[in-house]
């Protein structure tokens, strides 16, 4: 993933804030998971509390533990809290947790800092896992600068445009197979209010480097902008960055959801499900919820690639993946858990037990050959797979850049920088300041980060 990076990121700063424990499951064991409640083998897993992970918890004891005898002690936290706790435990190499959920943003950085076990030897021995079945873009994104693999995806996603086919048809409109942002804006204007209570589009406006910054940065990329040029010069006040941001802010203010400055992924999903918006640009993971049994919009949604301007594609790439802490004394058992949780048989288990819409897809080519999955995900499966396969973390725009990443910049400082910039963008969406004012402040924040890298 990072082979084209010209500069190496500095060590990740440990975050001290730790959230409240939500759901420790299974019997407790000593730190590091050396033994279960009755002296049996066990591992400690720290993970994010999303629906797919909750389903994993439900299935672990009756399947993985029953098959292997390895107890799994889960600690489950909201996304911001789990990132803080993981960064503290892994940075200190405390060894309290053997396995943690990490994204393709953290894994190359953690690997460079020496906080993770390489998985290459495990993969080589475990031929049944079938690494070749993992989508190449995912394997690449979880491979560090040293060429070694440090993570296995639990599920993967890109981004695309979701739209109400029936609403467009009623208005005599059609969605291009590969829309531009200009075309999307024109459609949003025409369908805004055409159905009572329905806005033209939903776009994230909620502050957060993983909220508004994610979709906005893909728009910046395809408009020809970048956070930093190849020499680490901050570019947030460039013409391209301004054009993209102004377009995004104008679109969501004119034709977007009410309360857009406080709307994130969850709010847009709810708006789309409840028929309050006709289009939504966001994560491909949203499609499963829209098409799930009981969804009022199931069968009414169309899916097309992420809109573009100057690039051929603009979809992001993201995965929640498993990483093994370097300090773990249970790496073999930790790998057994990862192999099971990210394996082909687990996907079939979830499909049969919880429904095929709940399968953690987006990581294996074979998933898209399962007849039951293809039937339930027919509307979005191919578009999702293609978006993930076509994502280009090393070269997502039209100009060279110093670090990889599509919806983020692959440096440790981006969590703080992205969050601070997002607050300025959200303020512009709320109408409290202009885009120029927001980006003037954002540029100074980016320059402070660039000073650490220029000339390195």
Q: How are the secondary structure elements laid out?
A:
Elements (H helix, E strand, L loop, with lengths): L41 E7 L2 H18 L2 E7 L1 H13 L7 E5 L2 H7 L7 H6 L10 H6 L10 E6 L1 E6 H6 L10 H11 L21 H10 L16 H17 L9 H9 L5 E5 L2 H5 L10 E5 L12 E7 L6 H11 L2 H11 L16 H6 L4 H10 L23 H16 L5 H16 L6
Parallel strand pairs: 1-2, 1-3
Antiparallel strand pairs: 3-8, 4-8, 5-6, 5-7
Helix pairs in contact: 8-9, 16-17
Question: How does this structure look, described?
Answer:
The chain is α/β, with parallel strands linked by helices and 456 residues long. The chain is 39% helix and 11% strand. It has 17 helices and eight strands. The strands form two sheets. The chain has a five-stranded mixed β-sheet with strand order 2-1-3-8-4. It has a three-stranded antiparallel β-sheet with strand order 6-5-7. Helix 1 links the parallel strand 1 (42-48) and strand 2 (71-77). The two termini are 20 Å apart.
